[in-house]
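CO-FOLDING WORKSHEET

Operator: S.A.
Ligand of interest: guanosine-5'-triphosphate
Run index: 407
Mode: holo prediction, single chain
Checklist:
[x] sequence pasted
[x] SMILES validated
[ ] output reviewed
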Amino acid sequence: MAEAGVSKMNASSVPENGSAGVAGAAPSNAADSQQCPSSTDSSDNAKASGDFSKKPTCLIFLGMAGSGKTTLVQKVTSYLYEKKPAPYVINLDPACAEMPYPANIDIRDTVKYKDVMKQYGLGPNGGIVTSLNLFATQFDQLLGLLDKRQDQHEYVIIDTPGQIEVFTWSASGSIITEALAAGFPTVIVYVMDSVRSVNPVTFMSNMLYACSILYKTRLPFVVALNKARILPTDVVDSSYAEEWMRDFEAFDEALRSESSYATNLTYSMSLVLDEFYSNLRCTGVSAVTGARLDRLLELVGDARREYLTEYRAEYERLRAARDQAERGRQRRDLQRLEADLEPQDREATVESDVTLRSAARVDDDDDLAEERETERDDEDDTESFQSFLQQHKQRQAARRTTDASKS
Ligand SMILES: Nc1nc2c(ncn2[C@@H]2O[C@H](COP(=O)(O)OP(=O)(O)OP(=O)(O)O)[C@@H](O)[C@H]2O)c(=O)[nH]1
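OUTPUT RECEIVED:
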């Protein structure tokens, strides 16, 4: 690629028994980029591999900056490495300074975030968005790699940039999410910092964000209340958040101690979110101690089932509707084009059509006459070759006269 800081996508080869959890262990250069299929190959593969129930689950980890996405990705990766099969891990954070897990695909091998900033004169967030945009242009290669390895993995784990809006509200974030969801069972894991959410107003802001992502992506959703003190060593008991979701009065009670201007709004919002809470899969976890990762994966399994039974059917329905709308649009464009033609163009078109058709008819008539003539020749051997030639000449002359009069 010609753009600054962008190179061909690499799939770092993680050793099968790779020691997940070792800081800086990400191999960077063992590329199998030669194996990267072209976009045609990848779409062929995708078509060929239609059975979604056998495909690995893609987990997209999203969450506010500092909520613990990277730490949780590292812990889940480490957990799955022990359980086997090893997950396929993708880092989509171009500004990540140190990656504490071994990644199969690292965006930093493809796009040099600092070069992009320099080349385009961007600040840090602009640099991240542009890097992600550049990466998205090669995403079909990544899908091709995933297609090839889908039999070897049960999970594909995706870490996203620190600033959540960079991924959730950018075009490239949407393209990446939709491309994954179109090809694989995909689940959003929304990582929430349970320490920072003890304040009901902050909790509500976080929940509204989670809700907006759910409605934007429409993908099955799991909330991981991170930094939860399930084992005595972590920070805060996250059960307060689960209680607030279950019990509106408990949330109302906590809200009473707040006297900010946002209290009334928060109160109203909690009523609105009641429906969202009722179907929400949620668990406290600790990315540091590893507590309740099994529960998290249980909920992910449940979300995967939702993808297969509900999302997929809806996706196919929407795709069919979109294809139909596209066909309708093309038809309307064609009709508009015909209507826009100048009257003389239209007449010319009609006239030439008539000429062609009448010429075709003359040809057809001639053919028919010749056939009949031949049949008659066969039937009646007495008819001379000369008279046949004469008739033929007459027909030719008649045709020339007709053509001349029309032109
Ligand atoms: N106590 C505790 N700290 C955690 C936990 N998970 C993450 N942290 C800490 O929270 C801080 C942020 O963690 P990261 O994993 O970098 O969070 P992130 O969401 O990936 O952050 P960015 O991508 O940089 O926005 C780090 O100091 C972690 O050590 C947890 O479960 N318990």
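REVIEW:
The pocket of guanosine-5'-triphosphate is lined by residues 63, 65-71, 93, 162, 226-227, 234-235, 286-288 (CB under 6 Å).
The chain has a mean pLDDT of 77.
[x] output reviewed
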